[in-house]
Amino acid sequence: MLLIPFYALAFVVPVLTASSKAQQHLASDALSTIIANGAPILGVDTGCPRTSKTCDWMRKYPDSTKLVHMNLPGTHDSATWNYTQETQDSLFRYTGTAIPPADIYQCQDKSLFDMLNLGIRVFDLRFAYNPGNDTLGFHHNVALLSPTTTVEDVWFGFYQWLDEHPTEAVLISLNYESGTGTPRDLKLEQHIYDIMTSRLASRYWVQTNGSLGTLGEARGKLTFLQRFTYNFLPATESKRIGIQLSPSAWTDNSPAIEIVYNNSTNQIAFIEDYYEIGLPVGSGYAENIQWKFNATTAHIENATKHNPEQLYISFASAEHDSDSPPETPKIMALGNGTDTPGVNQKLLPWLKERKGQRFGIIMLDFFDSVPGLIEAVIGL
Ligand SMILES: *[C@@H]1O[C@H](CO)[C@@H](O)[C@H](O)[C@H]1NC(C)=O
Ligand SMILES: *[C@@H]1O[C@H](CO)[C@@H](O)[C@H](O)[C@H]1NC(C)=O
Ligand SMILES: *[C@@H]1O[C@H](CO)[C@@H](O)[C@H](O)[C@H]1NC(C)=O
Ligand SMILES: *[C@@H]1O[C@H](CO)[C@@H](O)[C@H](O)[C@H]1NC(C)=O
Ligand SMILES: *[C@@H]1O[C@H](CO)[C@@H](O)[C@H](O)[C@H]1NC(C)=O
Ligand SMILES: *[C@@H]1O[C@H](CO)[C@@H](O)[C@H](O)[C@H]1NC(C)=O
Ligand SMILES: *[C@@H]1O[C@H](CO)[C@@H](O)[C@H](O)[C@H]1NC(C)=O
Ligand SMILES: *[C@@H]1O[C@H](CO)[C@@H](O)[C@H](O)[C@H]1NC(C)=O
Q1: How many domains does the chain contain in total?
Q2: Is residue 333 within 8 Å of 293, Cβ to Cβ?
Q3: Which of the four pLDDT bands, split at 50, 70 and 90, describes residue 54?
Q4: Ligand 4 neighbourhood includes 209 CB (under 6 angstroms)
Q5: What span is annotated as the signal peptide, if there is one (predicted)?
Q6: Considering only CA atoms, which of 140, 172, 135 is closest in space to residue 155?
Q7: Last residue of some domain: 206, 232, 248?
Q8: Which CATH number is 242's domain given?
Q9: What is the DSSP letter of 379?
């Protein structure tokens, strides 16, 4: 046993403290810089709103609760919250002016930090190269969401929030966005792989693969839903975490998708992602909204009745931009005035009537415009 004389301790301790304080200053300054660079996607963390009952809502659930048994409110195309026409105009030098108007791409109006503080626990993010084909950033199809924010910045934002909310578990679904005109190459895949397998990531991401465990195992961490495959990365780079929802198995625009994400345990994700409503032109807001509401509730209804051990993901989000007048994501979610309620208004009473049942994950657009919707999804 090593004995350290008392006088030596008295000398060493203050020195260590001073140097570790300096380290803390450096670390906190570096973190602030990263979070500020992430602000176009993360927003600014203003803490739990005083009126929010859902800021740390998972605290009340036991550790043993299985994630597949939970009702998790999520946001579709989460990173589009600040993609207004003003933002699109400011990015014309990267995208050119010949792109459709911003309201076709904007699906949210609360920042990622606001979403977290309001109780959203599943995020749908799509990455590709930022301008310059060097760093990785966020897009929605041809809409570039920020030219400077990187995936790393945004992950740091989630890590910081989780450190402050250690009872909460957050799921991140990540797609590769192929419609951006930027290259897809080995360098891009190596970069995202390195991010996901770094030492820091191993601390903040649930490290199991091919299975979803309990809330207790997922608290204070991110759980990965990988919606892309590696096409160029050598097979030797094979450290996988989370669950694989392969894009080739994710049937486009389908009201009922089944993806086996683990063959040996027969784990299946049941997904409704009917987003482009196929009605004839001129069908109108009400008809388009009714079709989407039908598809969404049919799927959630199944989540309440079938396969209690499997994952259910229902997208309440949709658009029909080729209609005349077009149904933007906002019109689909929120309707048009009081005479045409949107999917969100219609979902609220439907979910409340089924309070206590398993809904699974419900992905929403403009979730905050209908008060009580988050509580109704969770079943509070
Ligand atoms: C949101 O967009 C506006 C308009 O483009 C911009 O001025 C503002 O800085 C953006 N907000 C953040 C947090 O980046
Ligand atoms: C990025 O990639 C695109 C598509 O391959 C190419 O047109 C563009 O010149 C590249 N930009 C840079 C800065 O390399
Ligand atoms: C399938 O699930 C089992 C049990 O959770 C796990 O040990 C295994 O690694 C998973 N297989 C794959 C291919 O992900
Ligand atoms: C899945 O995880 C297990 C243990 O956590 C590991 O042994 C295995 O290599 C992983 N599978 C892949 C494909 O990375
Ligand atoms: C499960 O098996 C099928 C058929 O062999 C295969 O195509 C699929 O990739 C496998 N899924 C996983 C997650 O390993
Ligand atoms: C929606 O579903 C209900 C009940 O299943 C059915 O009566 C109605 O015709 C459907 N409406 C549309 C627009 O699909
Ligand atoms: C609901 O479950 C039934 C029975 O498994 C299935 O036939 C049907 O296709 C499912 N519908 C949806 C929308 O998932
Ligand atoms: C509602 O629809 C009418 C007719 O299409 C349109 O003139 C009006 O601007 C819409 N109102 C809102 C709030 O979207």
Answers
A1: 2
A2: no
A3: very high
A4: yes
A5: 1-17
A6: 172
A7: 248
A8: 3.20.20.190
A9: T
Residue 289 makes CB contacts below 8 A (sequence gap 6+) with 327, 331, 332, 335, 340, 341, 342, 343, 346
- Identify whether residues 233 and 274 lie together within a single domain: no
Q: Is 96's C-beta closer than 6 angstroms to any atom of ligand 2?
A: no
Does residue 71 have a pLDDT over 70? yes
Residue 342 burial by Cβ neighbours in a 10 Å radius (0-12, 13-18, 19+): buried
Residue nearest to atom 5 of ligand 8 (CA): 325
> Has residue 355 been placed in a domain?
yes
C-alpha 319/C-alpha 222 separation (Å) is 29
- Residue holding tokens 């579709």? 76
**Could you tell me the distance, in angstroms and rounded to a whole number, from the CA of residue 213 to the centre of ligand 3?**
11
Residue 271 and residue 208 in one domain: no
CB count, 10 Å around CB of 202? 12
CA-based end-to-end distance of the chain: 55
Q: 263: Cβ below 6 Å to ligand 5?
A: yes
Q: Which of 232, 248, 264 lies at the terminal end of a domain, its last residue?
A: 248
Instruction: Return the pLDDT at 259.
Output: 98
Q: Given pLDDT bands bounded at 50, 70 and 90, which one contains residue 1?
A: very low
**How much distance in Å is there from the Cα of 130 to the middle of ligand 2?**
10
User: Is residue 10 one of the residues assigned to a domain?
Assistant: no
Please give all residues whose beta carbon lies within 6 A of any atom in ligand 6, as ranges.
290-291, 294
What pLDDT digit, counting tens, does each position of 170-226 carry?
A: 999 999 999 999 999 999 999 999 999 999 999 999 999 999 999 999 999 999 999
